[in-house]
């Protein structure tokens, strides 16, 4: 296919750090009515709601980018909704041409292109909102964290519930000692709801006329198009997605990780139904261990995905006892249970109808002071941060570390080993083979 005028050399220069902040002069004073000019990368599916979320929070949408021409058509209606927005297929071209007009970008692409788009934008001094998981690999998450810090930009990972009352109140209750020091966390989801467990890549198909396939691949290995990848089924393939864990882990595992002020686990191991070179498993159980901390003792943190109808890939009944749940948790899409010295806390990120065992704990801690800021939503929190307000609480300093933790589970799945983890250096000290998954190979022209 024809390459854009934005060359490989220009892309590498922009992502090498050599032009950090060179094309962006930040506004020194924002008024309450000033608009943040936003460019949106990836505008289909979740990207469409991210565009409207940024606009609803006061962002002025000046550029739209998607590799599929259909994303701005009559079905999406984005051209009519945002008539001032120029449209691009290549985010590199958008960032180059719109450098003087936009202050911030949203990145709502498949996992494998999060880091290339967000890193280029931050190195140009643009504020960034990026969907979860923050990146495709652990190394990329660390790079995103460090780049955001160096650039001094406002960041937010798309993790809607992090900004809502249930999670922020849950953090306050756990830190107040409602269940005492925590010893176990159990989290689960019914994902995957797309194909996983595949053992071979699909046969080649004709590329749809509206899709720029080479741009969709981005840093992933060159390969033929298949409808088994695009538009929705990419999550199960290792080249593009991060499986059920990557899809839901940053949501469901967030509250305990935040409340307990967790960082790097000591070990991680996984059980799963398959371990293929090309795709994630249809179910997995992942167990992390952490050294004791301020709010927890030696901690076991367990993740279950692919919860089956027989409950076979879900928390054991003794974990759920006293939580007001049926033994078969497959009736719920996602939830978590925290176990502490004083009892259990059953938590759902969608409500504040607390369930504790014993029941008296919720009432006893009802008057716990509020210590975390409350905001309208994650979009408003980010836009306010772009204007110089307080940092969004799912900024990359926090969400980068959360993403490293989440994606470490995939490292255990792909190696098939119990890993001893040196988090500071991103090394599985007992498994050199894990290195290839910590930092992936990039297709020529898309290197970071």
Question: Helices and strands in order, then pairings?
Answer:
Layout: H1 8-15, E1 36-41, H2 46-56, E2 59-65, H3 78-81, E3 86-88, H4 91-97, E4 104-107, H5 114-123, E5 127-131, H6 138-151, E6 155-158, H7 165-175, E7 182-189, H8 213-217, H9 243-252, H10 254-259, E8 267-272, E9 284-290, E10 296-305, H11 317-320, E11 334-340, E12 344-347, E13 355-357, H12 360-364, H13 378-386, H14 396-415, E14 419-422, E15 427-428, H15 435-438
Parallel strand pairs: 1-2, 1-4, 2-3, 4-5, 5-6, 7-10
Antiparallel strand pairs: 7-11, 8-9, 8-14, 9-10, 11-12, 12-13, 14-15
Helix pairs in contact: 5-6, 6-14, 9-14
Structural class: alpha/beta
What's the structural domain tally?
A: 2
Q: Could you say which overall geometry the principal axes of the C-alpha atoms support?
A: globular
Strand order of the largest sheet: 13-12-11-7-10-9-8-14-15
What's a concise summary of this model?
With 448 residues, the chain is α/β, with parallel strands linked by helices. The model is unreliable at 1-9 and 15-28 (pLDDT under 50). The protein has helices at residues 8-15, 46-56, 78-81, 91-97, 114-123, 138-151, 165-175, 213-217, 243-252, 254-259, 317-320, 360-364, 378-386, 396-415, 435-438; strands at 36-41, 59-65, 86-88, 104-107, 127-131, 155-158, 182-189, 267-272, 284-290, 296-305, 334-340, 344-347, 355-357, 419-422, 427-428.
Structure description:
The protein has 2 domains: 8-162 and 382-395, 3-Layer(aba) Sandwich (Rossmann fold); 164-196 and 231-373 and 405-438, Dihydrodipicolinate Reductase, domain 2 (2-Layer Sandwich), CATH 3.30.360.10. 29% of the residues lie in helices and 18% in strands. The protein is built from 15 helices and 15 strands. The protein has helices at 8-15, 46-56, 78-81, 91-97, 114-123, 138-151, 165-175, 213-217, 243-252, 254-259, 317-320, 360-364, 378-386, 396-415, 435-438, and strands at residues 36-41, 59-65, 86-88, 104-107, 127-131, 155-158, 182-189, 267-272, 284-290, 296-305, 334-340, 344-347, 355-357, 419-422, 427-428. The strands form 2 sheets. It has a 9-stranded mixed β-sheet. Strands 3-2-1-4-5-6 form a 6-stranded parallel β-sheet, with helices on both faces. Helix 2 links the parallel strand 1 (36-41) and strand 2. Helix 5 (114-123) runs parallel beside helix 6, helix 6 (138-151) runs antiparallel to helix 14 (396-415) and helix 9 packs antiparallel against helix 14 (396-415). The protein starts with 7 loop residues before the first helix and ends in a 10-residue tail after the last helix. The model is unreliable at 1-9 and 15-28 (pLDDT under 50).
């Amino acid at each position: 296919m024809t390459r854009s005028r934005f060359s490989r050399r220009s892309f590498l220069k922009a992502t090498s750090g050599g032009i950090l902040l060179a094309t962006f002069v930040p506004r020194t004073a924002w008024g309450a009515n000033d608009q943040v000019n936003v460019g949106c990368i990836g505008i289909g599916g979740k990207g469409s709601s991210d565009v409207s979320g940024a606009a609803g929070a006061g962002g002025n949408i000046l550029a739209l980018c998607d590799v599929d021409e259909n994303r701005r058509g009559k079905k999406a209606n984005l051209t009519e909704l945002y008539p001032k927005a120029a449209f691009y297929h290549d985010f590199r071209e958008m960032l180059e041409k719109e450098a003087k007009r936009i202050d911030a970008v949203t990145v709502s692409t498949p996992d494998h292109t999060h880091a290339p788009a967000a890193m280029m934008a931050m190195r140009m001094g643009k504020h960034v909102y990026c969907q979860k998981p923050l990146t495709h690999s652990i190394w990329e998450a660390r790079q995103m964290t460090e780049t955001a810090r160096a650039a001094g930009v406002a960041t937010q990972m798309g993790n809607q519930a992090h900004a809502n009352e249930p999670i922020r109140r849950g953090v306050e209750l756990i830190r107040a000692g409602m269940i005492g020091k925590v010893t176990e966390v159990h989290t689960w989801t019914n994902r995957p709801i797309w194909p996983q467990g595949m053992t071979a890549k699909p046969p080649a198909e004709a590329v749809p006329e509206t899709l720029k396939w080479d741009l969709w691949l981005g840093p992933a290995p060159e390969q033929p198009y298949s409808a088994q990848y695009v538009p929705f089924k990419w999550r199960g393939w290792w080249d593009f997605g991060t499986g059920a864990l990557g899809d839901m882990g940053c949501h469901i595992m967030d509250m305990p990780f935040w409340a307990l002020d967790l960082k790097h686990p000591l070990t991680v191991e996984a059980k799963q139904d398959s371990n293929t070179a090309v795709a994630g498993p249809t179910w997995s159980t992942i167990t992390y261990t952490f050294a004791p901390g301020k709010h927890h003792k030696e901690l076991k943190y367990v993740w279950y995905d692919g919860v089956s109808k027989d409950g076979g890939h879900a928390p054991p009944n003794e974990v759920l006892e006293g939580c007001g749940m049926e033994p078969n948790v497959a009736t719920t899409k996602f939830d978590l249970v925290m176990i502490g010295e004083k009892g259990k806390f059953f938590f759902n990120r969608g409500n504040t109808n607390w369930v504790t065992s014993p029941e008296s704990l919720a009432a006893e801690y009802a008057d716990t002071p509020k210590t975390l800021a409350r905001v309208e939503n994650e979009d408003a929190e980010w836009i306010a941060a772009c204007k110089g307000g307080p940092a969004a609480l799912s900024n990359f300093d926090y969400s980068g570390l959360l993403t490293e933790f989440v994606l470490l589970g995939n490292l255990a799945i792909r190696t098939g080993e119990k890993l001893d983890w040196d988090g500071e250096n991103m090394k599985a000290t007992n498994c050199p083979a894990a290195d290839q998954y910590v930092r992936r190979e990039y297709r020529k022209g898309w290197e970071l």
